[in-house]
Automatic annotation (TrEMBL):
Higher taxonomy: Bacteria, Pseudomonadati, Bacteroidota, Cytophagia, Cytophagales
InterPro entries to which the protein is assigned, alphabetical: Dabb, Dimeric_a/b-barrel
Signal peptide coordinates: none
Domain of life the protein comes from: Bacteria
Stress-response A/B barrel domain: residues covered: 2-97
This protein's name: Dabb family protein
Regions annotated as coiled coil: none
Length: 99
């Protein structure tokens, strides 16, 4: 299993249109066939010194293996998402995990 964890920080945190646009863009990735599971969310309410809750959205994508992830990276829907939404975020942080 290959788990692709992506965290987004919006440029305009209080802009509801930007939030909606980024969320719609993230949800559009659900159409990529190589993804087995998709989880999309915002920071949980837990607060401890070791928790970074400064991001605005997270997407957790589960793939069968790294090859399936590689298909996702070059998929037209992923490329469209980046082209359409990159202007909305100031930072993206990715943690890839092999499980």
């Amino acid at each position: 299993m290959f788990v692709h964890n992506v965290f987004f920080w919006l440029k305009e945190k209080d802009n509801e249109e930007a939030k909606s646009a980024l969320l719609a863009g993230i949800k559009s990735l659900e159409g990529i066939e190589s993804i087995e599971s998709v989880y999309i969310g915002t920071p949980a309410s837990t607060r401890r010194p070791v928790i970074d809750a400064t991001y605005d959205f997270a997407e957790i994508l589960v793939f069968a293996d790294e090859a399936a992830h590689d298909v996702y990276q070059v998929h037209p829907l992923h490329k469209k998402f980046v082209d359409d939404c990159a202007h909305l975020w100031e930072r993206v942080l990715i943690y890839d995990v092999e499980a």
